[in-house]
Amino acid sequence: MSRTGRHSAPKNRKLVTRKLPAIAVTASLVLTSAVAFTAQSNSATKPETKSTIKQVAPVTKTITKSAGTKASAAKATPKKVASKKVTPKKLSPEKAKARAKVKARIKARAAAKASARKYVAARMKAQRRAATRSRTIRKLSGQVASIKSQLRAPGISGKKVIALANNYRGVPYILGGTSPRGFDCSGYTQYVFRKLGVNLPRVAEAQFRATKRISRSQAKSGDLVFFHDRKGYTYHVAIYAGGGKTWHSPRPGRSVGPGRVRTSNVTFGRVSSHKAHSALLRQLAAKQAKLARLSRTK
């Protein structure tokens, strides 16, 4: 290959590179002219678009108003839908008889179930009533037997009196007191014996007159001890606990508790069996009457 042939290609490349700046210049001129033209066209069309927007706005408002009025009118006046009358199909006589038989059978079953439920409820109620009646009879029979055994006893049990008197230990002395909030001497004895069904008078002197006189050697637990002054007036009463000991509510500033008989000017009294048994007799009569009513009614 000759030298001229070897160097021909680079020459052509140089020519291309020389032509490129001219093409770039022409392209830039075309672009600038296009940009200028678009800018002029935009500036010319801007006022027109503003005016068109202003003109279109009231039109859209009127359109929306008219649409709203149409919608409200449509809501106010709903469309009337023509109701179709459904005519029941006429059944054949055989089918009507079969349907009536089915309905009658269903009603009969429901009535039978209701009557069976009523019968079961009534039977259960009667069984419960009989069970409560038998329990009440057994309870009343036991109470009647207990009262009869108490009536066979000679009088009030001294152990019961002392046990009940001990329950109110520590209750303060209050003048005129007759309740566990506070006792005086005669209020204490009256309250204890009332719990046992015996009604004693209110004051010590009246209790002294209501009891039976006994000697000191005959006194036992559950009897009453009356303290007298020189003139014979009863100023204090206590429950005798045996062995010279008592239970009483002594004086202001003290409380219910045990004490001792320290003077000889005392009198012992016993609640009569009639008074002791009077409350028991009333209870026995009431319970026997109730038991007779229950035994008559079945």
What labels describe this entry?
disordered N terminus, 8 strands, alpha+beta, single chain, six-stranded antiparallel sheet, endopeptidase fold (from Nostoc punctiforme), 298 residues, 7 helices, 3 domains, two-stranded antiparallel ribbon
Provide a descriptive summary of the structure in words.
This protein has 298 residues and is an alpha+beta fold. The chain folds into three domains: 43 residues; 70 residues; 113 residues, endopeptidase fold (from Nostoc punctiforme), CATH 3.90.1720.10. It has seven helices and eight strands, in the order ααααββααββββββα. A six-stranded antiparallel β-sheet has the order 3-8-4-5-6-7. Strands 1-2 form a two-stranded antiparallel sheet. A hairpin with an 8-residue loop joins strand 6 and strand 7. The N terminus is likely disordered.
Topology:
Blueprint: H1 3-6, H2 8-76, H3 93-152, H4 158-166, E1 178-179, E2 182-183, H5 185-195, H6 204-210, E3 212-214, E4 224-228, E5 234-242, E6 245-248, E7 257-260, E8 266-270, H7 273-296
Antiparallel strand pairs: 1-2, 3-8, 4-5, 4-8, 5-6, 6-7
Write down the CATH topology of the largest domain: endopeptidase fold (from Nostoc punctiforme)
Class computed from helices, strands and strand pairing: alpha+beta
Largest sheet, in brief, is: 6 strands, antiparallel
Strand arrangement across the biggest beta sheet? 3-8-4-5-6-7
The helix/strand series, from N terminus to C terminus, equals HHHHEEHHEEEEEEH
Approximately how much helix is present in the residues? Answer: 55-70%
Outline type: elongated
How many domains would you count in the coordinates? 3
Could you tell me how far the N terminus lies from the C terminus, measured between alpha carbons in angstroms? 149 Å
Low-confidence stretches: 1-20, 44-57, 59-64
Highest-level CATH class of the largest domain: Alpha Beta
Amount of beta strand: 5-15%
* CATH structural architecture of the largest domain: Alpha-Beta Complex
Q: For the residues shown, what is the average pLDDT? A: 79
Number of helices: 7
Query: What value does the Rg take, in angstroms?
Result: 60 Å
CATH H-tier superfamily of the largest domain: endopeptidase domain like (from Nostoc punctiforme)
